[in-house]
């Protein structure tokens, strides 16, 4: 499990920052497509490399069905709550719609 987390963290972080980066105007549409496709694939691979081991961890923490259900439910509710907070903070940071504000948001998250 640890190698997946160690691999997924940097891949996810760097790909997420790349996803919010803008390419120069001179870059062709094909290169922009390839760049953002690679960034999105990196985010997906990094997120999967982190979330699958974290989701499987609940089964190893307890043998009780009720405790596993409670822990899984709390993880889902907590993730939804934090996701909502992150969306609100992202909206506040990028309120002026400037390129710099999106870069700041990428580094914050």
In short:
The chain has helices at 2-19, 29-61, 65-93, 99-108. By secondary structure, the protein is mainly alpha-helical.
β content, as a range? under 5%
* β-strand number: 0
**Number of distinct helices:** 4
Q: Determine the mean pLDDT.
A: 91
Task: Give structural notes.
The relative contact order is 0.13. The mean pLDDT is 91. The protein contains four helices and no strands. Helix 1 (2-19) packs antiparallel against helix 2. With 109 residues, it is mainly alpha-helical. The longest helix has 33 residues, at 29-61.
Annotation keywords:
109 residues; mainly alpha; 4 helices; flat
Please outline the helices and strands.
Blueprint: H1 2-19, H2 29-61, H3 65-93, H4 99-108
């Amino acid at each position: 499990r640890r190698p997946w987390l160690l691999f997924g963290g940097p891949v996810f972080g760097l790909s997420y920052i790349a996803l919010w980066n803008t390419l120069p105007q001179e870059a062709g549409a094909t290169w922009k497509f390839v760049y953002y496709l690679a960034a999105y694939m990196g985010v997906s691979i990094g997120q999967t490399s982190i979330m699958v081991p974290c989701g499987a961890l609940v089964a190893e923490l307890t043998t009780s069905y009720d405790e596993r259900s409670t822990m899984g439910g709390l993880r889902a509710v907590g993730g939804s709550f934090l996701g909502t907070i992150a969306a609100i903070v992202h909206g506040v940071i990028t309120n002026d719609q400037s390129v710099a504000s999106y870069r700041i948001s990428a580094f914050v998250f």
